[in-house]
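It is worth pausing here to work through a concrete case rather than discussing structure prediction in the abstract. The textbook approach is simple: state the sequence, then state the predicted structure, then interpret. We follow exactly that order.
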Amino acid sequence: MSSNAKIEIYSGDYCPYCVRAKSLLEQRGLDFIEYNVQQEPEKRVEMMKRSHGGRSIPQIFINDQHVGGCDELYALDKKGQLDAWLV
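Step two, the predicted structure:
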């Protein structure tokens, strides 16, 4: 499924939850923008502001709406609600 949704994921090196979240997006054929907060520390500050204090990675945004982390992304998909976010 392709989508025109703007999907952003703040991630880091050696993060199994980041790998899992990106894997789901890739399996669904969705393009996303990835920000590595370990390689770009200023992106961690940005991530925390946008997620209202979220410190863990990944933090995922779809069309500038905060989804949450990996578990929240998978929960949306499992409930069949992810497509509604991709409009």
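Step three, interpretation. The chain is about 40% helix and 20% strand. The mean pLDDT is 95.
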